[in-house]
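F.,

This is the one I mentioned.
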């Protein structure tokens, strides 16, 4: 019987990233995926003969650039294709509002709906981008054990020093104020156009089960800003070959570092002894 340092049940994109990092750190890793293909929600499937679709996740804009770089995903086949506009918000009267990567270009479009909002938008983008730097730093930190935090833990906060100093006291106060807000309240403070507020609010709740009036959805907008591949609050790139190509690139990286990946391997039981996991049992097809 083969032994491993870590067995990961499920070969979704998160499991594959975990496997790649563990293998890179020298651990002996096994990934077990029930389906015939890895990727989880990051899959490309042929729904009609000759036509392939990303059937669940539709973009890799929230793939961490840090993860992509550390796993050398470009060397393993990942290629992101630019997308413009980032968003096209269709209006009931037949009008439309495109959101471009360039905030000045977007401001020209917004001016058709509100001159005041067109003037505000570049300032909004600049502020959100600075606030997102802090959130991005937090996303790559091991959370502090707040009840037991000690002086030795404070050194882990040093990567936040630069982003916080660039904010200054006034904008740090704005960050603390924005985090618990609803997206609706935040956007109402900045803009008057329903077209613009609707476009931004929709993206604040994309992928979650809350509405934009829920407390904390201003943070989800900021989170998406922080985790996007340079695309403001939304994906700035599509994966060439569909989302399945992203999963395959991560799988190749994991394999490169020494991880073993098995498909059509359904885990039917997790074995344990004295409160510790000792292995898994596989079903047979």
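My design for it:
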């Amino acid at each position: 019987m083969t032994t491993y340092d870590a067995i990961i049940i499920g070969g979704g994109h998160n499991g594959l990233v975990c496997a790649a990092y563990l293998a890179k750190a020298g651990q002996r890793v096994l990934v077990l995926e029930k389906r015939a293909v890895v990727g989880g929600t990051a899959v490309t499937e042929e729904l009609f003969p000759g036509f392939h679709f990303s059937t669940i996740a539709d973009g890799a804009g929230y793939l961490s650039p840090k993860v992509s770089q550390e796993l050398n995903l470009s060397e393993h086949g990942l290629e992101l294709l630019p997308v413009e506009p980032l968003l096209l918000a269709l209006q009931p009267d037949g009008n439309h509002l495109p959101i471009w990567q360039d905030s000045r270009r977007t401001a020209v479009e917004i001016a058709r709906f509100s001159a005041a909002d067109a003037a505000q938008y570049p300032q909004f983008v600049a502020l959100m981008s600075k606030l997102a730097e802090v959130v991005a730093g937090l996303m790559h930190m091991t959370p502090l054990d707040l009840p037991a935090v000690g002086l030795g833990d404070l050194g882990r906060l040093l990567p936040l020093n630069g982003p916080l100093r660039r904010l200054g006291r006034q904008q740090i106060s704005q960050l603390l104020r924005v985090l618990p807000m609803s997206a609706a309240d935040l956007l109402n403070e900045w803009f008057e156009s329903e077209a613009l507020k609707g476009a931004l609010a929709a993206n604040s709740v994309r992928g979650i089960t809350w509405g934009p009036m829920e407390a904390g959805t201003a943070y989800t907008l900021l989170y998406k800003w922080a985790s996007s591949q340079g695309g403001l609050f939304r994906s700035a790139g599509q994966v060439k070959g569909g989302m399945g190509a992203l999963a395959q690139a991560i799988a190749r990286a994991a394999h490169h570092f020494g991880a073993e990946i098995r498909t059509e391997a359904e885990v039917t039981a997790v074995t344990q002894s004295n409160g510790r996991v000792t292995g898994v049992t596989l079903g047979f097809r």
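The radius of gyration is 22 Å.

Talk soon.
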